[in-house]
Specification:
six-stranded antiparallel beta sheet, Tumour Suppressor Smad4, 169 residues, mainly beta
């Protein structure tokens, strides 16, 4: 087991980031990220993750956030239950809710309308690949297009080669 230096959570060997707080683990040589200290006024390591661990459900009051792993930037997703992820392209009439162009989306293979995140009435969060050219991966496994896949706190999704960690603070 690997112990997180930030929150002391135990992770399986080979883990790169802590599934509890998002911190980089000590054996992840050559990678750099920023520690998550606060999101929305709540300390990430002070939340009740015991209720989330091993469960697909999240509290209805939870705010869904995405952390871009290359930059460490947090993207809080609030006030809606559905978000399309992609990149803006000149002349495209339909625009994604979350534009990943600023994070090298084009160079990393993010499609214009790549995937959609949905919060359901039963408090599950799902991701659906929208038939993207370079695929959507969940923890390294490629998703089948147009088939919803449940997410849990700490999951890593890859939109092409752009890696994003899903957090439910």
């Amino acid at each position: 087991m690997i112990q997180c230096p930030n929150c002391q959570h135990q992770e399986l060997p080979g883990a790169i980031f802590c599934s509890e707080c998002g911190a980089q683990l000590p054996n992840a040589i050559g990678l750099t990220t920023h520690s998550i200290k606060k999101t929305g006024g709540v300390e990430a390591n002070s939340m009740d993750t015991a209720a989330l661990k091993g469960s697909m459900n999240i509290p209805s009051s939870a705010v869904l956030s995405l952390q871009i792993l290359d930059s460490g930037q947090m993207l809080p997703l609030t006030e809606r239950d559905e978000f399309t992820l992609g990149r803006v392209s000149e002349g495209q009439p339909i625009m994604p809710d979350i534009d990943l162009s600023a994070f090298n989306g084009y160079q990393l293979g993010v499609s214009r309308l790549h995937a959609v995140l949905k919060k359901h009435r039963n408090n599950e969060i799902t991701i659906v690949d929208l038939g993207s050219s370079n695929g959507t991966y969940l923890n390294g496994t490629r998703l089948k297009p147009h088939e919803p896949q449940k997410l849990i706190h700490g999951d890593i999704i890859s939109l092409g080669k752009l890696k994003v960690q899903v957090l439910f603070p």
